[in-house]
Design a protein that fits this description.
Elements (H helix, E strand, L loop, with lengths): L12 H16 L8 H6 L5 H11 L9 H21 L1 H17 L1
Helix pairs in contact: 1-4, 1-5, 3-4, 4-5
């Protein structure tokens, strides 16, 4: 179980942009992961450490097939690429925000 440490909230635009970039990276990599604001807030750490905690707690089975550093590098590289796109092209952010809304409504 993950420890709760609410470092970011939906009121923090930087955290929301980062969360959307992670969700876009997960989608780009074919991972069926989705971080809603609550999940994002409860993960301690930042960047690679945040992903490592989530990976170990929620998807440890992947560590039997892949090295943790390989997965972390792939995710962080994709996140950086997605975040760069978001910063350059706001409609991309709107696309993932709309998908996140659809995801929440379907749940």
């Amino acid at each position: 179980m993950l420890n709760v440490l609410p470092l970011h909230t939906a009121a923090d635009p930087g955290a929301e942009a980062e969360r959307h970039a992670y969700n876009a990276a997960f989608e780009e990599l074919g991972l069926s992961w989705h971080w809603d604001p609550h999940t994002f807030a409860r993960l301690q750490g930042r960047g690679r450490e945040r992903v490592r905690l989530y990976l170990e707690a929620e998807h440890a089975h992947l560590l039997r097939a892949y090295e943790a550093d390989f997965l972390l590098e792939a995710i962080e590289t994709a996140r950086a690429r997605c975040q760069e796109r978001v910063e350059r092209d706001q409609p991309v952010l709107a696309h993932y925000a709309a998908r996140a809304t659809d995801h929440r409504q379907a749940a």
